[in-house]
Specification:
This protein folds into 2 domains: about 5-390, no CATH class; about 400-480. Helix content is about 60%, strand content about 5%. The chain has 16 helices and 5 strands. Strands 2-1-3-5-4 form a 5-stranded mixed sheet, with helices on one face. A hairpin with a 6-residue loop joins β4 and β5 (about 475-480). The longest helix is centred in the last third of the chain and has 49 residues, at about 340-390.
Length: about 475
């Protein structure tokens, strides 16, 4: 079976190599200066803590731990992403770069599989893969997510590998088709064990292919679906047999996170919030695409009218919608939930614009190829220089981290500090203490040897304590008096 693909309709130029380097520089600019600095969004920071704890033997794979006192068994998400990231902590240690290296690698491998799918669609002409990669990495929520160690990074990688396996399996011989479809299901299961049900969207790929590609027969679509589902269910059954505790772990996740989110017990917003967020995040891509198409129309160019290119664009647009719109089912909607869908929107735009962009590049590089090469090299060098100049700085929470460092170095400091009720919801404070210094914060109401409050807390409320470490900016640390 052959899918209708772009084939040799589009040729590449030597200048594409320079634009690949330029795309790498842009990707580096958007990620590296943030990844080499201290400070991180609280969710990604908590995930790093849980992964570090697993590497230290605190908690188990199916029952990971956040801190000794808060979420000693963490079930807000399935555990696979934490388990994988814990291997990085075992290998690289507890330095602040460990989770950042992991997050960067998920971005690099996602870009790699965007290029692999592009290569599949153009039957080997992968040099222009920089087009969808550039469109993808410049979406604000995408580079923000990879700079902050979000679970969507791991989910997105597993999902795009699954999509690639389904697509390449569909044009393979019987044996390879079965094997690739089965492994596609296995990667969907890995995504589910990292972030839950949002990982299921690659199941829509054979269905979408049936409606958009005449040669994608119903028989082939059904066979693909059966093998993908088998790749999910059979390994899942094996996991249950080998690790019975997995049932209790996943059941707890379903009760505490998934069902609570569907009922609106977590974060509740308008169910169309995700659609609005999708529009705003893709607005630069939409505007760029519209501008090129308008210029093409004004110039009476006809490249965008190729039916194969339009079909490919619609195909990946449909996959992107399958990955994003189901979020509307839940009242809990956050913009970064869109990250796994963004490669497909980028490819949809890339297929639509590829000939226009390539045509423009050919005209420009005919005269200015050396200049473009020089600009690309300079941009890459500038990215490296800026990255090194930011190393060890702060992207956020500078004062908080400075206070935490002073508190943790206080003489006689213990592994657990009690905190004032006003700090009970400061998740980044809890995570920073554990991530950098191995200290857990106690919000049970029990007063420990050391007690932490906000700076404006009245001293009279702690008659049995005396203040220590008085040079803190935002907090007060008290130590219990010795009678």
């Amino acid at each position: 079976m052959k899918l209708t693909r772009a084939g040799n309709l589009f040729h590449t130029t030597g200048a594409d190599r320079h634009f690949m380097l330029l795309t790498a520089a842009v990707m580096g600019f958007l990620l590296l200066p943030f990844l080499v600095k201290h400070g991180m969004f609280m969710d990604g920071l908590m995930y790093a803590v849980i992964s570090m704890n697993l590497a230290h033997g605190e908690g188990t794979f199916w029952f990971p731990s956040f801190t000794e006192t808060i979420y000693p068994a963490f079930h807000d998400h399935p555990p696979l992403a934490f388990g994988i990231q814990s291997l990085f902590f075992r290998l690289l240690g507890d330095g602040f770069l460990t989770e950042r290296i992991y997050s960067l690698l998920t971005a690099v491998f996602t870009a790699f599989f965007i290029a692999k799918i592009w290569h599949w669609a153009f039957q080997g002409q992968k040099n222009t893969a920089w087009i969808p990669v550039l469109l993808w990495i410049t979406v604000p929520v995408v580079y923000w997510s990879y700079a902050n160690n979000m679970l969507e990074n791991t989910l997105g990688l597993f999902a795009i590998v699954s999509v690639w396996l389904i697509l390449t399996g569909a044009v393979s011989r019987s044996g390879r088709f079965i094997l690739r479809s089965f492994f596609a299901g296995l990667f969907i299961l890995a995504g589910m064990l990292s972030k839950g049900l949002p990982a299921l969207f690659p199941l829509a790929v054979p269905v979408i292919g049936y409606f958009l590609f005449p040669s994608f027969s119903m028989k082939k679509s059904l066979q693909s679906m059966v093998m993908v589902v088998a790749g999910i269910l059979l390994p899942a059954l094996l996991i249950v047999i080998l690790w019975p505790e997995s049932v209790r772990s996943i059941s707890t996740y379903l009760d505490t996170q998934l069902l609570a989110s569907l009922k609106g017990d977590r974060i509740v917003v308008n169910r169309f919030h995700i659609v609005e967020s999708l529009f705003w995040q893709l607005l630069p891509v939409i505007a760029f695409s519209a501008l090129l198409l308008l210029l093409s129309s004004a110039g009476k160019r006809r490249e965008v009218k190729d039916p194969d290119m339009l079909r490919l664009s619609l195909f990946f647009l449909a996959i992107g919608l399958a990955a994003s719109l189901p979020v509307m089912i839940s009242p809990k909607q956050l913009t970064f939930y869109l990250v796994p869908s963004m490669p497909y929107f980028a490819m949809a735009a890339g297929f639509l614009l590829q000939k226009l962009i390539s045509g423009c590049i050919e005209k420009v590089t005919f005269r200015y190829q050396k200049s473009i090469r020089t600009i690309s090299l300079l941009a890459f060098a500038a990215m490296l220089i800026i990255t090194f100049s930011h190393f060890g700085g702060y992207s956020r929470d500078r004062e908080k981290l400075a206070d935490i460092a002073k508190i943790s170095s206080t003489e006689g400091m213990e592994d657990i500090i009690s905190i004032d009720p006003l700090l009970y919801r400061d998740w980044s404070l809890m995570a920073y203490f554990k991530r950098y210094h191995g200290i857990s914060l106690d919000r049970s109401g029990k007063f420990r040897k050391f007690h932490l409050t906000l700076r404006d807390t009245v001293d009279a409320e702690l008659p049995d304590y005396s203040e220590v470490c008085p040079d803190l900016r935002n907090y007060k640390l008290f130590r219990k008096k010795i009678n």
